[in-house]
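quick one: D-glutamic acid bound model?
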Amino acid sequence: MAIGVFDSGVGGLSVHRALVQRMPNADFVYLADQANAPYGGREGEEIVDLTRRGCETLFDQGCDLVVLACNTASGIALRRLQQTWLPGYRKQIGRPVNILGIIVPTIEAATGVPWEHEAERRGEKVEKLDILAVFCTPATARSRVYEIEIDKRRQDVAVFAEPCPTLALMIETDAGAVELATAIEGHVAAISSRIGRAPDRAILGCTHYEIVADIFRAALKPGTPLIHQPGATADALEAYLAKHPEYRAGEGGARRFLTTGKPGAQSTLVETFWGAPLSFERA
Ligand code: DGL
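yep, here:
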C-alpha cells in the first residue's frame, strides 16, 4: 500500500516533502488537481466534490490512506466526506480506506492542546493576548475554522485570518520573487493594520505559501514564529500509523506524482523548493 497525498496543485508538495523526509521508506502517490486549481475561490459544494474525486483517484491507485495536504479541502470537505461519503464508499470497495487532514495537527501545534481536550482551559484568566495571524485562501477564511477551533482550546490566543485571493495561483504559475513579495507585503500590512499591531505568531494556512515561506518571513516582523504545518502533519501521520497498523505505508520508498492538469515538468519555484526535478504523470 502507499500513502496518498492530495492538493489542488503543487502547494501540497510542502507537506509531502516533510512526510517523505520523515518516512523515507514509505511509498507515496501525490495527486495535484491542477485542472481545477485553485480551490480557494470556489464554492463549498464544488470543493467537497473535487476533494472526493481526488480521494477516489488515489484510492483507485491502491492508496488506503489519503492525507489532504490542503487547508481548503481539509477545512471545507473533510468532515463532510468522513461523515457522509466514506462509510458507504468503504462498503462499496471492501477496504478500510481513510482520509486525514492538516488543520487538526496545525491547531494542536499552535495551541499545544491535544484535539480531544477542547474547552479544557475555559474560564482561565488571560494575562496577555497572543495574536495569531492565519494567511489562507478566501474559502478557508470564510469557513472560520482556525478562529472557531483555536477559540475552543485557548482563550489567550486571538486569531485573525487574512484571505489572500491571488497567491496560490501566483505560486502555481511561477510568479517572480518581486511580484510575490509585493503581494505578501500587502497582506502582512493589511492584517497588521486590522489588528493594530504586528502579529505575534503566524500560520501559513495554505500549503502553497510554505513554498514562499522565506518571503513571508522577510515581510513579517523579524523573528515572528511560524507554526510549521508540514512538520505538524508528519507528526500526526506517524502517530496515526502507529495506532492503526491496518494501514501500512509500504516500504519500497516509491514516489509517484500525478496531475489532472498538464503532465511533465513543474515550475522553477516548485522544483527549487523540492530540491530536484519533478515530473508529473497524467492522473
Ligand atoms: N494549497 C491549498 C490550501 O492549502 C489550496 C490553494 C488553492 O487551491 O486555492 O488551501
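The chain has a mean pLDDT of 96.
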